[in-house]
């Protein structure tokens, strides 16, 4: 009977321990996804740093840090499950809750700052375009933006007419506004027979909005996964605590049963309980 009462708990706990290890493997993958999303946001800021508001990089940096912390949390969760430590498992749940709050905050921040960042990007982009002819960093940034986003000027290619009119160049637009042809991995420019029609202000606005959308969506999906992990860890902690409590109760009951079954023998009961036997020595004769 004792074996049948113990085995269900042992089997259940083994299953829970196995599942929480699998969940922590999922959290490692989650951490990689968080780092990937954060790196993407940060790389976008780094590529367009000359026209981006510095505050735009904060959600990406925050997610990179959170992704790294999740690796440590996953290790703690595995150790707590394998060692059946209630303290470690509940600490794992608490740290996971903290990272959940940070991720949600990053998503909310990105969504809330979307309009502010878009306005700042438009203003910085306009200023940087007007610095194109005399600032090397501005020229590199604008060429990169126009090539990657396939755009030209602020609102359109006509913006370059005023900017380039006082230069010695006969070109009406920078070469980065021209359509690109790639052959065998080499990039060549046409003589501007085709110019990107879209202005870069619209292109940068889409970059900001898409980045905020991806960040918010990723944060929500990861938050749901971590919420499940938090509930699961709390359940495991309660099961470990209950199992340990049952073990202590069984030990206490066994100790009590042993103490009750033991009846000490007093001196007054010695003769009554164990009567004394008198022995006499008999003489034997040898022939």
TrEMBL record:
<dbReference type="InterPro" id="IPR000301">
    <property type="entry name" value="Tetraspanin_animals"/>
</dbReference>
<keyword id="KW-0472">Membrane</keyword>
<dbReference type="InterPro" id="IPR018503">
    <property type="entry name" value="Tetraspanin_CS"/>
</dbReference>
<keyword id="KW-0812">Transmembrane</keyword>
<feature type="transmembrane region" description="Helical">
    <location>
        <begin position="89"/>
        <end position="113"/>
    </location>
</feature>
<feature type="transmembrane region" description="Helical">
    <location>
        <begin position="62"/>
        <end position="82"/>
    </location>
</feature>
<keyword id="KW-1133">Transmembrane helix</keyword>
<dbReference type="InterPro" id="IPR008952">
    <property type="entry name" value="Tetraspanin_EC2_sf"/>
</dbReference>
<dbReference type="GO" id="GO:0016020">
    <property type="term" value="C:membrane"/>
</dbReference>
<dbReference type="InterPro" id="IPR018499">
    <property type="entry name" value="Tetraspanin/Peripherin"/>
</dbReference>
<comment type="similarity">
    <text>Belongs to the tetraspanin (TM4SF) family.</text>
</comment>
<feature type="transmembrane region" description="Helical">
    <location>
        <begin position="21"/>
        <end position="42"/>
    </location>
</feature>
<feature type="transmembrane region" description="Helical">
    <location>
        <begin position="212"/>
        <end position="234"/>
    </location>
</feature>
<protein>
    <recommendedName>
        <fullName>Tetraspanin</fullName>
    </recommendedName>
</protein>
<dbReference type="Pfam" id="PF00335">
    <property type="entry name" value="Tetraspanin"/>
</dbReference>
């Amino acid at each position: 009977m004792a074996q049948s009462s113990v085995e269900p708990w042992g089997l259940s706990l083994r299953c829970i321990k196995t599942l929480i290890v699998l969940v922590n493997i999922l959290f490692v993958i989650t951490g990689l996804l968080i780092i990937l999303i954060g790196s993407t946001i940060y790389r976008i800021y780094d590529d367009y740093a000359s026209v981006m508001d510095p505050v735009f990089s904060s959600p990406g940096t925050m997610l990179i840090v959170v992704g790294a912390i999740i690796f440590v949390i996953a290790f703690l969760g595995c150790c707590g499950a394998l060692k059946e430590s209630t303290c470690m498992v509940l600490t794992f749940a608490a740290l996971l809750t903290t990272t959940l709050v940070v991720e949600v905050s990053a998503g909310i921040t990105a969504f809330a700052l979307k309009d502010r960042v878009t306005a700042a990007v438009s203003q910085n982009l306009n200023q940087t375009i007007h610095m194109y002819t005399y600032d090397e960093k501005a020229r590199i940034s604008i060429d990169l933006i126009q090539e990657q986003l396939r755009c030209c000027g602020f609102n359109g290619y006509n913006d370059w007419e005023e900017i380039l009119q006082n230069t010695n160049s006969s070109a009406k637009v920078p070469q980065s506004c021209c359509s690109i042809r790639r052959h065998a991995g080499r990039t060549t420019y046409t003589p501007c027979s085709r110019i990107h029609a879209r202005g870069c202000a619209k292109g940068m606005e889409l970059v900001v909005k898409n980045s905020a959308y991806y960040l918010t969506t990723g944060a929500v999906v990861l938050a749901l996964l971590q919420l499940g992990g938090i509930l699961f860890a709390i359940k495991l902690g309660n099961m470990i605590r209950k199992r340990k409590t049952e073990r202590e109760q069984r030990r206490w009951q066994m100790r009590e049963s042993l103490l009750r079954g033991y009846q000490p023998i007093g001196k007054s009961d010695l003769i009554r309980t164990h009567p004394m036997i008198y022995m006499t020595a008999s003489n034997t004769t040898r022939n």
